[in-house]
Amino acid sequence: MPDHRKLGRELGLFDTDPLIGAGLPYWLPDGALIRHSLEEYVRGLERRAGYQHVNSPVLGKRELYEISGHWAHYRDDMYPPMDVGGEQLVLRPSLCPHHALIYRSRGHSYRELPLRIAEIGGMYRSELSGVLGGLSRVRAIQLNDAHIFCTLDQVEAEAAAALALIRQAYDALGISVARYRLSLPGDGEKYVAGDWDRAAAILRSVLGDLPYDAVEGEAAFYGPKIDVQIVDSAGRESTLSTVQVDFHQPEQFGLEYVGADAAKHRPVMVHRSIIGSVERAVAQLIEVHGGAFPAWLAPVQLRLLPVSAAELPYARSILERCADLRAEIASEGSLGARIRDGRLAPFQAVIGPQEVAAGQLSVRLRDGSRVDPQPVEDALASILEAVRPPWPRPASRMPEPGSPVPPSR
């Protein structure tokens, strides 16, 4: 498995600059295409699962994080407050306080629950320089985050559905699970008081007979969580996806809904992230696929290779018909060198005099095999179908840790 830090730079996906700062990578055009395709896929996956998308600011008043508990229990990982207009503003370390306020901004009935809100939003962690590296450990994070506000008797089903979404996404992305971890509280003042046993019991039930490790001292400060662990090229394990049960923040923010008995009740908050941070997810994808991304994620999906300058106008006319494909023309250098340079593209089409005369395309696949020449419209339609994002199949059981994942299209 290649190191994403080296390969990502070689492929022109991302880079860093000391004037921007350590742990603050920037995305180059091809890397941005992969990132945006991944974000679009996740949003579509969430929409199909009944999530509503929101946007919230990356800043919040210090008081917000005092109420949520982040200031007391997570301050060492936060950036210091900024004095602005007589207020202290903080770069947010998490999206959950903002989503709690979004829920609180309107009254809710039990008929609306579960209410699922999602966001791919920026957050910031004051990581030590010694642990920063590539995309896998950064200071500015785009997190695929969501919060489900539900009744107590809905919590287990919602957490299980979140794990099913993680399984679907991992199948589509070609990511394997290293192991499942039930992260529980440890000793000390790192954790808030609360109904930890009930929250942990819910997550144990969700895990069912899946093999997992229960680890103390790895819980969020407000509740236990299921961590879906992955392994990088150096054999280092990290968390990519999580599901968490939180009784604390609904209490802190005074969240309510009106029940069937017309009385006010406290919802439970389920935190879940399908792919975790976009940065870490892309780092894993670079390493898993070695740059040969699934067709729907590839920054260039179709390369048109005119044999000579005479075929260039025909190639340009085809490119104009590729509005829904990420296509490019490669015309410089020998044909063999161009084919080798484009070996990571899922589709390449060599265009010679015969193709021009017949109005056809001769498509070469990533594995070196070739498709019989087809009329241009038929060839482009087939390619377009092959690069569609793999939308969810009916939910099924998650793969066992370390089990192979079926290849994506």
Automatic annotation (TrEMBL):
Cellular component terms (Gene Ontology): cytoplasm
Record keywords: Aminoacyl-tRNA synthetase, ATP-binding, Cytoplasm, Ligase, Metal-binding, Nucleotide-binding, Protein biosynthesis, Zinc
UniProt catalytic activity: tRNA(Thr) + L-threonine + ATP = L-threonyl-tRNA(Thr) + AMP + diphosphate + H(+)
The keyword Nucleotide-binding is assigned to this record: yes
Uppermost EC category: ligase
Gene Ontology molecular function: ATP binding; metal ion binding; threonine-tRNA ligase activity
EC annotation from Swiss-Prot or TrEMBL: 6.1.1.3
Transmembrane residue ranges: none
Superkingdom, natural source: Bacteria
Positions of the UniProt region annotated as Disordered: 390-409
UniProt signal peptide: none
Protein's UniProt keywords contain Glycoprotein: no
Ranges where the Aminoacyl-transfer RNA synthetases class-II family profile domain occurs: 29-294
GO biological process terms held by the UniProt record: threonyl-tRNA aminoacylation
InterPro entries: aa-tRNA-synt_IIb, aa-tRNA-synth_II, aa-tRNA-synth_II/BPL/LPL, Anticodon-bd, Anticodon-bd_dom_sf, Thr-tRNA-ligase_IIa, ThrRS_core
Assigned protein family: Belongs to the class-II aminoacyl-tRNA synthetase family.
NCBIfam families: thrS (TIGR00418)
Name of the molecule in the record: Threonine--tRNA ligase
Organism lineage string: Bacteria, Bacillati, Actinomycetota, Actinomycetes, Pseudonocardiales
Protein encoded by which gene: thrS
